[in-house]
Give the backbone structure.
Amino acid sequence: MLKALMLKLKESVISVLPVAVIVLIISFTPLADFNWVEQVTFAVCSVFLIIGIGLFNLGADLAMTPMGEHVGAGLTKSKKVGVLLSVCFVMGVLITVAEPDLSVLAEQVADVIDNTALIVTVGVGVGLFLVIAVLKIIFKKNLSALLMFFYIMLFGLAALLIDSGKNNFLALSFDSGGVTTGPITVPFIMALGVGIATTIGGRHANENSFGLIAMCSIGPILAVVILAMSSSGSMSQESLDMLAHYDTVQEALNGIGSKILHTMQNVVLALGLVVIFFMVLQFTVLKLPRKKMMQIGIGILYTFFGLVIFLVAVEVGYMPIGFKLGQSIAAFHPAVLAAFGFGIGMVVVLAEPAVHVLNRQVEEITGGGVKKIEMLIALSLAVGVSICLSVIRMIYHFSILYYLIPGYLISLGLSFFVPRIYTAIAFDSGGVASGPLTSGFILPLVVGACVTLNGGSPNNILTDAFGVVAMVAMTPLITIQALGFKAVMSAKVRHNIAMKRIINADDEQIIYFK
């Protein structure tokens, strides 16, 4: 166990170190005006971030992934489709309702949409789309066709939202898809898909293992769009001020005790709902051996402490530093801000906990056909480009649909030319890449820059700053499918070269057997 923990910590160091080094170097330049308390706090929080990611990744291996696989495999073996679908719906709702990021999102738009209504509706949306994803696996349906259908429906509803004059919440709606697929949701749902697909089997078992996160990312967007259309309220100045405000490092340090307790409560709620429901299934359907349950119990503890340490480190060190850094760089020059967005985006995705869970499962399911390093490079480039484009949109004040419509058209178009497994992996990667560090560091950075560029006014935050999470979730769809397209074309080139050599071979070199 200690050896496994040290390996996870080593991976965490490699992930977090680039982000920490870049920010600390900038803190000593004219681009940022950080005092020594902020520099030390950020450095210490980076260390805790490493510890948190290491513990979480080990916990995901020991608990969250096995739980999902056993639930999927156990219920599928029972051949009770109704029970399987009911459990998937309930698990989708419970996990989503318990996601801390969703509660934060609901509080920020409380003037327009009731908190409870938003959380429950988004939870039901995820539950329904998880059921649809499971039905796709059972009946072996094409993921690309389903994605095409639902995204056409989604953009149709977005057009109605704009027509009703409520386009302020367009970016927020698309952001909700990335926020909902958090660090607790991703390992469990991905493993659930693996358990169901491997039990059912078939030629496309590996391909069917992916796609659940992709489907579950659509439900929240549809839910928020529908709620926004039916809402009659408007954003108050107080709410906008809250969106623009993040605690300073000093304020965060003064209230660190309450932040730790609050985070522990949120994580207990998030994990508790999943664990309780899993225990009900254990005693009624699964009946796993005691040794396996002990392993899962230990893994849950690792997951709990890892997630608490990670979230507190982000809230205390990364969120306020991100906000101040965005303000400082935007005041220096917008072009520098766009370049910095690309650079920091390339490395920040490495520190997302769920990214490593995805990469590991991808390499295992594809038998090494898709390497972890290839996935990391593709995701890094994608996130870097997405943040750079988000900054450009914020500077020039144009709608996020100018990015999303062509982006999704390209990604859905590519799905017809690449192996299906690449499409499934790509659309899963979108939800995974937009994790807590994106919402806890990148979003504050963009919000801070937006406030500075607007002369201190928070009036355009909803339309300009929001949408960065949606962009982070979209660009991996293109880059990872581009990997698949490259693989297909390379295979064709190798085949054509081999055929030409056979056709052009000298007859004298042919050996005839009598």
Q: What stands out?
A: Residues 61 and 348 are 22 Å apart (CA to CA). The two ends are 63 Å apart (CA to CA).
